[in-house]
Design a protein that fits this description.
By secondary structure, this protein is of the alpha/beta class. Helices cover 41% and strands 18% of the residues. The chain is globular and about 55 Å long.
Length: 297
Amino acid sequence: MIVITAPTGNIGRHLLSRLLESAPAAGEELRVIVRDPARLPDAARGRVEVVTGSHAEAEVLDRAFEGADAVFWLVPPDASLTPQDAYSGFTRPAVKALAAHGVGHVVGVSALGRGTPLADRAGLVTASLAMDDLIADTGVAYRALANPSFFENLLEEADSIREKGVFTDSANADRKAPFVAVADIAAVAAGLLLDRSWTGTDSVPVLGPQNLSPNDLARIMTEQLGRPVRYERQPLDELYTTLVGYGLNEAFVQGMVDMKRAKDEGLDAGIARTTDTASPTSFEQWCAQTLKPAVFS
């Protein structure tokens, strides 16, 4: 039995789709934790066991983890909380349930940066790494998917790209860094959940096929969308003021700012890209398949 948290989210929906294709042949049953079962895809209906509720709740987790062999764990960021509460606080009920039900394997969504000098001052990433330690301390076999920034973050810029030909972030325009498509993260997660021959605790980097700078992203978007797209850099203090003005938790916003600062200083550059750490989806492919329809919708 494989339990999937956040099965309707960016990564979870891709993972669920993959496991619906592969799990039956492997003799695996699937169970999902979801707040609103109506949001599950039609392909899942009658083929997965559904536990309705939030995976922050102990009672829901007790039902979901009973008889489970493996769990896909994803914490949905909550900007109303401090980073520590949003990650470790959210995960503590799961830690108790994992131990109580003897779950053997967990695959979690985390971040790059472990072992670097920046890891202890990287805001949301620091909180995510602390969550990994909390899970690993239960004694389960644990694999933390160590991810860079997602291509999908740019979907938040679709309106600005459409209307003004501009996307913004806080990174140096020429700073090259890894980026990854969420479908590739889901593919790695599916492989680990189906083949549980691994033991102990480790990180699994998912780095995408190449490093790209904001200027590279702008150039490729221009080519793929057939219209000029340029990058504008937003100062971190301006970002902080804007987000706090929206009513977000000040500590969470500071965690986001610290994460972006650390990434701009090279947080994601500590792992070499190899055949094992690269993932296949290029930014060109992602633009054509995902961003272009969003911009021109």
